[in-house]
């Protein structure tokens, strides 16, 4: 029996764990993979306060993990399959056990969205990637395509120039959602070129990626260009595969919360990228995690005194 079960060990989950355990709550974090979430696979985080020169994402998340351990947070590295949240004692079914707690914080984060074009599934792991930090070194001296127009696409495209001979950023619009500072750095990088108002129609190859077929959305013309790799940055989807009806979500599957981060189920909170929020950054995830943990403390104190 725990006071609070936290699902997910990204920035939101780890921060919630730190605050909850430091507040005297018996706390466990359930995580399928390694601590840190998507932030841990980011080469350089430049906009997290306190690090004027930026910091490696894995290094930052490793510090979060160590701090959580220092305050006594327990970790269980298993997948969550089902839960029963309606009763005062919440039950979470993982790979090998059923965990119980009086409160739950869902901080399972999000995952890269698939582009959904022919060849994407076939060449996943054979030239198609969603993580430049993970796979960039495999493309030393080669030509790669980066798909997207946000900060992730631009920043990871810049990172790939450490290895690739050429980085081609393909974006379906003329304008970009990325910050101006990131755009300026990309435009100043001689290894990067842009193909705008264009989308990928198909990823081509035999055993591995060999090229992409592009569609000009203005003219309707198609063409093929050679490429050794394709890196996708076209948004994210919530890690909500274990959520089945009890928790209210929006049309995209992101969890709905009130201003205190409580869901529609009493004693159940959501934090970070899995909830319906306007901004998904490490800084906002940390804020969510702190608030969710404090709200859990208040909730548990109130039901204890009833």
Describe this structure in words.
- Helix content is 23%, strand content 27%.
- It has six helices and 17 strands.
- It has helices spanning 11-22, 57-70, 132-135, 151-160, 180-187, 282-304; strands spanning 2-7, 27-30, 74-76, 80-84, 90-94, 98-106, 110-112, 128-129, 143-147, 166-170, 192-195, 198-205, 209-216, 222-226, 229-232, 236-238, 268-270.
Computed Rg: 21 Å
Number of strands: 17
Strand content: 25-35%
Question: What percent of residues adopt helix (DSSP H or I)?
Answer: 10-25%
Low-pLDDT residue intervals, each spanning 5 or more residues: none
State the separation between the terminal residues, measured CA to CA: 20 Å
Query: Would you give the CATH topology of the largest domain?
Result: FAD/NAD(P)-binding domain
Write a concise keyword list for the protein shown above.
FAD/NAD(P)-binding domain, elongated, seven-stranded mixed beta sheet, 2 domains, 306 residues, alpha/beta, 17 strands
């Amino acid at each position: 029996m725990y006071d609070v079960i936290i699902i997910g060990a990204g920035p939101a989950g780890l921060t919630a764990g730190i605050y909850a355990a430091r507040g005297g709550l018996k706390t466990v974090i359930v995580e399928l993979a390694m601590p840190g979430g998507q932030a841990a696979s980011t080469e350089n985080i430049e906009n997290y306060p306190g690090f004027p020169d930026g910091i490696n994402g894995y290094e930052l998340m490793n510090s979060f993990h160590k701090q959580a351990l220092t305050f006594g947070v327990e970790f269980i590295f298993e997948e969550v399959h089902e839960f029963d949240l309606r009763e005062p004692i919440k039950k979470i079914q993982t790979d090998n056990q059923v965990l119980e707690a009086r409160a739950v914080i869902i901080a399972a984060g999000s995952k890269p969205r698939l582009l959904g074009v022919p060849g994407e599934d076939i060449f996943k792991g054979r030239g198609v990637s969603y993580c430049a930090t993970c796979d960039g070194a495999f493309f030393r001296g080669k030509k790669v395509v980066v798909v997207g127009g946000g900060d992730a696409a631009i920043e990871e495209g810049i990172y790939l120039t450490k290895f690739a001979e050429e980085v081609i950023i393909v974006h379906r619009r003329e304008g970009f959602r990325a910050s101006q500072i990131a755009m300026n750095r990309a435009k100043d990088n001689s290894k990067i070129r842009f193909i705008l108002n264009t989308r990928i129609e198909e990823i081509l190859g035999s055993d591995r990626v060999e090229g992409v077929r592009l569609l000009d959305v203005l003219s309707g013309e198609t063409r093929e260009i050679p490429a050794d790799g394709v890196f996708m940055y076209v948004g994210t989807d919530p890690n909500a595969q274990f959520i089945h009806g009890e928790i209210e979500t929006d049309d995209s599957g992101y969890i709905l919360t009130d201003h205190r981060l409580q869901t529609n189920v009493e004693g159940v909170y959501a934090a970070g990228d899995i909830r319906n929020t306007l901004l998904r950054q490490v800084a906002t995830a940390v804020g969510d995690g702190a608030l969710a943990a404090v709200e859990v403390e208040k909730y548990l104190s109130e039901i204890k005194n009833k």
